[in-house]
Amino acid sequence: MKSLVDQKLLTASVTNVMWERIHLSIEVKITYEGDIDQEKPLDFYAVDLVEFLNQVHFRAERTAKDRYLLRINITSAGNNRCIPSGVYGIFVCQGDQKLAECVADTCIIDEMGNMSRSFLYGAQKKVYSVNFYIEEGSENFPFRMSVLSASQNNMEFGQRARFFAGLHIWGNFRKAFLSSRQFLKRCYAMYARKKHDPNVTTILFLTEHNDELTSNLKAVYDRMVERGLDKQFRILINARAAAARSQSKISWIRAVRDMARSDIIFVDDHVGTFDWLKLTDRTMVIQLWHAGAGFKSSGYSRWGHLGCPAPISSHRQYTYGIAGSKNIAPFFSEVWGMSDELVLPTGMPRMDEYLDKERQRRKTEELYQQFPICKGKKVMLFAPTYRGMNQSTAYYPYELIDFERLYRECGDEYVVLFKVHPWVNNTLTIEKKYRDKFLDVKNYPDINDLFYITDLLITDYSSNIFEYSLMKKPMMFFAYDKVQYSFSRGFHRDYEESAPGKVCYTFDALMDAFAARDFEFEKVQEYIDHHFDYIDSGASDRVINWFLLGEMPKQFQDEIAAVREDWKRTSSLDFLPEHIGEKTDVRMLANYLEEKEE
Fold first, then answer.
1. For 75-100, what is each residue's pLDDT tens digit?
2. Residue 163 · residue 150 · CB < 8 Å
3. CA atoms of 110 and 140, how far apart (whole Å)
4. Which terminal residue of the chain has fewer beta carbons within 10 Å of its beta carbon, N or C?
């Protein structure tokens, strides 16, 4: 990288710093002062000024002739990793020429502390912080970004003995706990070293949440068998509810053995084992996430909230993910901390069966036989998500429902099916006087089947709107706790703007809108157009063709190649000061780094 900084061809001033969850945006004003091509776009790099080993390339948008907006996802700086710890300056470049280093505009100096952010993780005992300040001792206010990943430290006097006693107990437990993991890591390494037949591709369908394949995993597996691809590929299945129940040593050994033998692993949920077991580089992991697209944040999109992942987690091992459309790919890439281009719009494989017309006809007949209360009536399906932190604490506050008014508003036209999230532990009690119109169907296995006979869906923040929208029927949203839910779980997009139907914040408002048939139904088609690139029964085939048979559309291949090439180029750029070059001895470099740290 050739430095022209001393020629002062331009100055670059940071005028604002903004955050949207984990997305950092920096506004920069450019003042051209020398002989430079002002039409040619500029590049912006954050460079670690301590070790000069880390640099990240901002996505830069030119918003005016002298203005740029720099964007970066701090959890995915280009290689599906967080921005490494370090002290960064921002350099302005044009091609292979370094033109200037960003300074802080005087208008933001007093506010830079407020622009900083800290993201808690690890049961809120660890933190990843991004802080902004100006370098002291300089007249032109060099803009600095400090990134630090740190752990909680004991800061109390008089608790030293108790602390170390507790540490001893915890250490023994941790030693035993880690020894089992170390044993499994050794097992994995042993199986991975075994001779691998390069002519046979081994595919593993893996879940730690069920004892059998379900949802997208089952759809892709079944389709491979239908196409006879189980003869072309070696297929393994490892399905066990390890996330909810303890597993035997044999079960664990079989699991790591299957992982080690596999070239491609399909998953459709979080795999806890991948949080601590690093897979070999030859293994491709494809995330067929089970949910379509609701509102709830998860993964890295809720960084800083309870239950969020660590900087290094299972999500970091995904090679690709899938989504319903290219428009919503960023929702998923944000959750997984990966580049948008690696999330491909194959559609959801489980939707293939759902959209099959013959299956819809057959299931509709079965549902009317199973639930005769629905015959000749319109069906309202009340299907909210759970409240609470996890499966053991999940509940729904049924006391918010005015059953008397709901019963009255149904008249002779509607009946109501209640299908709350399967994690909900508290029981819905339907009084006898309401049972001719109300029915609890919580134990019905597949909510998607119920959509066939549903005329109006009432939900809140659930992703079930994804499948239901394709029935092209109205839906309403009972969001009585939107503020609290947004704070504890977070939304990855504006709720009111994205909800494909009427949003109500009290039950009375919900009933008023229902009585007026005020569903805001026009939002449904807008939702469909945005969320689906394909509405067919071909998602499983696209997954198979694109990822297994090498038929990924060239457009997506080129986008992925461009991202990888940019990261490779960014990593190779040399931002070392000119007086420290390739011929500099180790002692001189060490002295320079020591001076910077001081």
1. 998 888 999 999 999 999 999 899 99
2. no
3. 15
4. C
